[in-house]
């Protein structure tokens, strides 16, 4: 028999980790936007932002794009980040199916 309390704890743990990753990605977008005002500052690369989006931070990156008006002119962010959101959702759904 399945222990439903344990399954709920695992699902909650996955959702908390997912939320923390997205919060971190959102804050990293804020940091990069602040750094963009200073031309001499060392910026966060676009590749790193895409890596964060692929590593389950796509919602945070997407919200940060529009909250801070950062990277919204780049077509590959406007198309790529929503695609990564779909990929993240599909993987989380797959993970959910394997937990239950």
Folded structure, characterized:
The chain has 100 residues and is an all-alpha fold. It has one domain. It is built from three helices and no strands. The protein has helices spanning 4-36, 46-67, 75-99. Helix 1 (4-36) packs across helix 2 and helix 2 crosses helix 3. The relative contact order is 0.15. The mean pLDDT is 91.
Looking at the chains present, what oligomeric state does this protein adopt? single chain
What does the main sheet amount to? Answer: none
Count of discrete structural domains: 1
Helix residue percentage: over 70%
The rounded Rg comes to 16 Å
Q: Total strand count, please?
A: 0
DSSP summary: helix tally? 3
**Mean pLDDT score:** 91
Q: What is the 3D shape?
A: elongated
Helix/sheet category: mainly alpha
* SSE succession: HHH
Please sum up the structure shown.
By secondary structure, the protein is mostly helical.
Keywords, separated by commas or semicolons:
100 residues, mainly alpha, 3 helices, 80% helix
Write the layout of secondary structure elements.
Elements lengths: L3 H33 L9 H22 L7 H25 L1
Helix pairs in contact: 1-2, 2-3
């Amino acid at each position: 028999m399945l222990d439903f309390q344990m399954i709920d704890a695992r699902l909650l743990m996955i959702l908390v980790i997912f939320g923390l990753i997205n919060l971190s990605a959102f804050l990293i977008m804020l940091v990069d936007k602040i750094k963009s005002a200073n031309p001499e500052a060392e910026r966060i690369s676009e590749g790193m932002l895409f890596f964060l989006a692929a590593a389950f931070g796509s919602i945070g990156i997407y919200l940060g794009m529009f909250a801070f008006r950062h990277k919204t002119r780049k077509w590959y962010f406007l198309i790529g980040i929503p695609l990564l959101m779909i990929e993240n959702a599909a993987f989380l759904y797959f993970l959910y199916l394997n937990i239950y």
